[in-house]
């Protein structure tokens, strides 16, 4: 039976820390969404934003049409959808509310007429889709699904500017999931838009798997049981916190506020935080009281309080105290995977030696907590970075780093 509880846990790799010195500790917050107790689900308000630039010819546009048509089959009278095509121009193709069989056939016909054209006004198409869904009220899931195979070369092209827009839209209740296909799209741009936009990022290596990625996204959306997850964590005096994994966050009034998007039935969201703790006296404690909030399937507020207490002890006692090996390994893996992500950016800029050294440095600092398999994998990447990667290799390694730093990667 699925769980109907909204569960949270807060752990550290070390509960007992040495006195008299600053100390780095890995914190792990895990949130588990309630199970779906019945067939109720959130109403969906979607924008399908499809790249129709010239590079989408052939199999790409054909499978994009199939994926968009598949999404339409999953919608019903509870839902609303906008279909936006873009090349250098932005073209609203069709829209529907309270989707009936007649509307479904009409939208499927319009999708079938999509054709590739000019350049790539990614920002124009995406913002148009977001604006359309932002105007609606009373919908649970407001999400833009952006599919592109190319570089943003018309309109807003700056990664930071597009990330800022994604953050602002998410603050107003509109999330974004991104789908990059092939070898030419900007992987770090699409990941940042998804991270700051409260959605998911997908790498599609073959046109034939476009529908698979959309199917996974829709499966997640249809089974959301905890929406708009927010964590409020007061920062104790003297403590410095760094969020690992690219999750959307801000520090306000000495509180760390994490915005973690939506979570599907019984799924976990795991967030790692690097805590630099100030020197303290033996016998004293640091307490991290977190409040976790979300909306359930009935749009009712879910709220949980969870607390983590760390104690100061003598250096000898702290050294002998057990370490949570599982938390330490997951935290170390997230740290190294985030470093791998940054190293891939350096490699793309031609700074190959710097890329390899930066990754190796972080890995060596956590090597005692990593599995041999993980170490071998990242050492291999470090060597490959020094020689340079192909576009396909960059995309594959970027996806791996994205999944690992957010603890999303499924182990075989």
Concise summary:
This protein is an alpha/beta fold. It has 11 helices and 16 strands. The chain is 37% helix and 31% strand.
- Give the second-level CATH assignment, the architecture of the largest domain: 3-Layer(aba) Sandwich
User: Over the alpha carbons, how many angstroms does the gyration radius reach?
Assistant: 22 Å
Counting DSSP H or I runs of 4 or more residues, the number of helices is: 11
Indicate how many domains the architecture comprises: 3
- Report strand %: 25-35%
Tell me the CATH superfamily of the largest domain. Answer: von Willebrand factor, type A domain
The SSE order reads: EEEEHEEHHEHEHEHEEEEEEEHHHHH
- CATH classification class of the largest domain: Alpha Beta
Describe this structure in words.
This protein is an alpha/beta fold. It has 3 domains: 7-36 and 226-320, Immunoglobulin-like (Sandwich); 44-222, Rossmann fold; 325-405, no CATH class. Helix content is 37%, strand content 31%. The chain contains 11 helices and 16 strands. The protein has helices at 59-73, 101-112, 122-134, 159-171, 187-196, 210-222, 315-320, 325-348, 352-365, 372-387, 391-405; strands spanning 7-12, 16-18, 23-32, 44-51, 80-86, 90-97, 141-148, 175-181, 201-204, 224-234, 240-244, 248-252, 255-264, 268-277, 285-295, 301-313. The protein has a 6-stranded mixed beta sheet with strand order 2-16-15-10-13-12. A 6-stranded mixed beta sheet has the order 6-5-4-7-8-9, sandwiched between helices. A hairpin with a 5-residue loop joins strand 15 (285-295) and strand 16 (301-313). Helix 4 packs parallel to helix 5 (187-196), helix 8 packs parallel to helix 10 and helix 9 (352-365) runs antiparallel to helix 10.
């Amino acid at each position: 039976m699925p769980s109907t509880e909204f569960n949270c846990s807060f752990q550290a790799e070390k509960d007992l820390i040495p006195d008299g010195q600053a100390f780095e500790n890995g914190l792990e917050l895990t949130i588990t969404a309630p199970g779906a107790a019945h067939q109720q689900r959130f109403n969906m308000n979607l924008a399908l934003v499809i790249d129709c630039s010239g590079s989408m010819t052939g199999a790409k546009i054909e499978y994009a049409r199939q994926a968009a048509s598949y999404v339409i089959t999953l919608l019903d009278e509870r839902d609303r959808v906008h279909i936006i095509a873009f090349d250098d121009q932005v073209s609203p193709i069709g829209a529907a509310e309270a989707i009936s069989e007649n509307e479904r056939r009409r939208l499927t016909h319009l999708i079938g007429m999509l054709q590739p054209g000019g350049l790539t006004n990614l920002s124009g198409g995406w913002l148009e889709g977001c604006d359309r869904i932002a105007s609606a009220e009373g919908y649970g899931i407001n999400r833009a699904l952006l599919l592109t195979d190319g570089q943003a070369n018309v309109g807003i092209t700056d990664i930071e500017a597009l990330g800022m827009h994604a953050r602002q839209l998410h603050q107003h209740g509109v999330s974004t999931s991104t789908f990059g296909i092939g070898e030419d799209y900007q992987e770090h741009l699409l990941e940042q838009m998804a991270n700051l936009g409260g959605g998911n990022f997908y790498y599609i290596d073959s046109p034939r798997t476009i529908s698979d990625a959309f199917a996974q996204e829709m499966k997640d959306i249809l089974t959301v049981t905890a929406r708009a997850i927010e964590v409020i964590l007061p920062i104790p005096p003297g403590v410095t916190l760094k969020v690992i994994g690219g999750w959307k966050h801000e520090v306000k009034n000495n509180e760390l506020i994490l915005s973690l998007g939506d979570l599907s039935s019984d799924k976990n969201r795991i967030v790692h935080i690097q805590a630099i703790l100030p020197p303290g006296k033996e016998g004293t404690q640091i307490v991290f009281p977190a409040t976790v909030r979300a909306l359930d399937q009935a749009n009712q507020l879910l709220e949980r309080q969870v607390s983590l207490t760390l104690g100061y002890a003598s250096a000898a006692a702290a050294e002998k105290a057990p370490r949570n090996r599982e938390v330490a390994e997951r935290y170390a893996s997230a740290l190294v995977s985030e470093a791998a992500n940054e190293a891939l950016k350096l490699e793309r800029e031609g700074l190959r030696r710097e890329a390899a050294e930066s990754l190796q440095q972080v890995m060596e600092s956590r090597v005692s907590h990593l599995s041999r398999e993980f170490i071998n994998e990242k050492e291999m990447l470090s060597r490959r970075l020094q020689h340079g990667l192909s576009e396909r290799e960059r995309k594959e390694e970027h996806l791996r780093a994205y999944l690992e730093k957010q603890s999303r990667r499924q182990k075989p």
